[in-house]
Predict the structure.
Amino acid sequence: QKLPKRFARKSQTRNRDGGLQMTLRFHSQNLEATQNAASMLAAQIEVDAGPFVIALVGELGAGKTAFVQGLGLGLGLAPEKITSPTFVIANEYRFPHNTGSQRADRLVHVDFYRVASSRDVEAIGFWDFFVPGTLLAVEWSNRFPEVLPRDHLVLELERAAPENGTTLRRFAARATGPQSDLVLRRWRDKLCALHGIEHVKD
């Protein structure tokens, strides 16, 4: 099943491996739709060979934590169990029922908002999270992009003006390497039929 051209398009920039970089753009009308989209993303990620990193970029209130709640939902955890790690820097959630499968058995939710330097990133044990079986979601990742792995998924979130009593969230996702590109394309295909996600015009 193909997406309409205006739903996902290839930009003219190139990724680190020299290939054309696709940017997936969509918007969500409510919290449930945001979490459902994230849940679908979690289902496309295989972490048996190593961790998978999602770099979340957006201002306060853009919906970063809500999106991570959806990732947890996709792995089998009620969204309300996931809270913002702003003050504790990192929260970790385990999914033992996924152990031995290609799906994540650990979700690590990190927030760089109060981290002062890349040296402090190391001090919180950030590198200890990079083990097989881990899905790592990093809020405010743009503060220290140098600590991210070469291949990761970037998700930019934006709070849009209210329409018909609802506040829209706009999303733009792009891959930085072959693993994240594969995940992004799988996610794009699944989003086609997701209710509450609307196409964004070019």
About this structure: The helical segments are 31-44, 64-75, 118-123, 178-191.
